[in-house]
Amino acid sequence: MSAIQIKNTQDVRRRTGTFTRANRPTSEGLITSYTHHNGKIGVLVEVNCETDFVARTDEFKTLARYLAEQIAGAAPIAVERDQVPADVVERKRHAFAEQVRSLGKPEHLTAKIIDGKVDAYFRGVVLMDQEWVRDPELTIRDLVQDVAVKTGEAIRVRRFARFHMGIA
Amino acid sequence: MSAIQIKNTQDVRRRTGTFTRANRPTSEGLITSYTHHNGKIGVLVEVNCETDFVARTDEFKTLARYLAEQIAGAAPIAVERDQVPADVVERKRHAFAEQVRSLGKPEHLTAKIIDGKVDAYFRGVVLMDQEWVRDPELTIRDLVQDVAVKTGEAIRVRRFARFHMGIA
Predict the structure, then answer these.
(1) ipTM of this complex prediction, to 2 decimal places
(2) Range B145-160 burial, b when 16+ CB lie within 10 A, else e
């Protein structure tokens, strides 16, 4: 095992470059909650990183708090695009298609406009693609990526729950 | 009825059938969160009542906090029995049946023992049927009912989410 002390296979893989940051195992992290002062909106979010050391830094805690606040304010329905239920996307695409076709544009333009509308829909409801409420110049993906670079660890928003009083 | 001690008029109404509190609309309430100090377990719970006035009482706020704490500690999987997925119950019943049949008891006893085990399973995983962690003499249903009587309003635990770091 040579001069370098290798603690486990994950270390080996990290050293030998089998892991890129984005797919390194993220099993530590924080579960953070947020409730509006009036008690009518509540959020729970799990944010993962690679080590408990990073999970306990102010940088990571602040990120988790920003994410909870974002979810409360911007009401995403999924973390990533592939988690938006396929039938929901299909229904949206269908509705956009009806709208666009009624404009009577050439078919190749129509398809592009529909794709653009679906993309905009995703940017509205997918957490990682949303504009950050505190700085719309950045997406949430930019924000997370920024903290990943600063801490040197892969960071993943694993899941969230958002309750709005009386609304499903 | 004479021998039974009646604690209050609500008791009377319940007995005489004029009591419909459980069916009255509960559209107000509170969303309360709870996270373990280590940030590894988080809970969100929505508790409904009939008026915002009651939602803002200390009694109701305390109930919501107790419920969040209960969910964190006792890890229920559903609010009521009928919300436990049917296939989960079926699998449990099947496993209990195998256990009990291997004992070679008469069939009518076997059925009763299986029912008892399914009932015990529900009391373990259904929030309203769980023993209260702060006072195992009471179930959560007793606790909620007690606050409903004190506040004079129907109270309903509408939903909860519980995240345990790294566990689904």
Answers:
(1) 0.80
(2) bebbeebebbbbbbbb
